Amino acid sequence: MTADGPLSGGNTEHEPGGAAAPAPAEAPREIVFRARGLRKVYRTGQVEIEALRGVDLEVSSGEFVVLLGASGSGKSTLLNILGGLDVPTSGELNWRDHDLARADERELTRFRREHVGFVFQFYNLIASLTARENVALVTDLAQAPMRPEVALELVGLGARMDHFPAQLSGGEQQRVAIARAIAKRPDVLLCDEPTGALDYPTGKVVLDVIARINLELGTTAIVITHNAAIAGMADRVLRLADGRLVSDERNASRLNASELSW
Ligand code: ADP
Ligand code: MG
């Protein structure tokens, strides 16, 4: 594969030259995550907290899913389990034909490394490295990564590659973190409150980047937020309350970040 432009590095096929590519024609979608009766109990001393109380869920490849819910409803727990950072206490969880519920630490590490990009509220960039070097740390470990420059172009930071985190705004730092997450070409991008530390206009820029990655590279994206206004950008909106999935709705069409109002 040649990498002759920022959008050529994807794992889906595109017409050349379509910078603002429309949604790909409805490709047959495959279920990638399948969870059944997912429970997670945290034990701290004598106290047991049931963070997930039986979640059934399917996520298809290429979907953009927004996960809403009040603080403490189990969103991060669910995302961490989907991403192989943690395992459920009981229940079934598969990523394609991988059993994530019974995977050992080695298998989970491999799953994360090969398939998952994470974006968190705080960007976790290394202060002494430039944007390019922060991304290169990850691409050095990946099997068929994008060049760091390509990933940074994709998030709109082509002109900021040699800046250090302290020279970038919060929104720009988060876009470096997104570039780092996508540079290894993950199948799935899991974002836990990616706009939680940003003001709303800046947050929308970051969400727009995530939505474009999802459309242009075909990366499945699951984004946690407690801002319900953002739900309009998604293909699908899940709501968690008290460890249970209480709604699962599909949007008739997706809004651009610029169309959201609050
Ligand atoms: P959310 O992301 O929706 O705010 P979390 O998944 O972080 O919710 O937490 C769900 C519940 O599980 C909360 O009651 C939280 O306090 C508890 N919890 C989360 N992580 C841990 C942990 N590592 N140890 C103990 N309790 C936890
Ligand atoms: Mg959380």
UniProtKB/TrEMBL annotation:
Any one GO BP annotation for this protein: response to antibiotic
Pfam families for this protein: ABC_tran
UniProt GO cellular component terms: membrane protein complex
Region of interest called Disordered, as start-end residue ranges on this chain: 1-25
GO molecular function: ATP binding; ATP hydrolysis activity; transmembrane transporter activity
SUPFAM superfamilies the UniProt entry points to: P-loop containing nucleoside triphosphate hydrolases
Source organism (scientific name): Quisquiliibacterium transsilvanicum
Superkingdom of origin organism: Bacteria
Coiled coil: none
Upper taxonomic lineage: Bacteria, Pseudomonadati, Pseudomonadota, Betaproteobacteria, Burkholderiales
Keywords on record: Antibiotic resistance, ATP-binding, Cell inner membrane, Cell membrane, Membrane, Nucleotide-binding, Transmembrane, Transmembrane helix, Transport
Entry's family note: Belongs to the ABC transporter superfamily. Macrolide exporter (TC 3.A.1.122) family.
This protein's record includes keyword tRNA-binding: no
Name of this chain's protein: Putative ABC transport system ATP-binding protein
SMART domains linked: AAA
Domain ABC transporter: 33-260
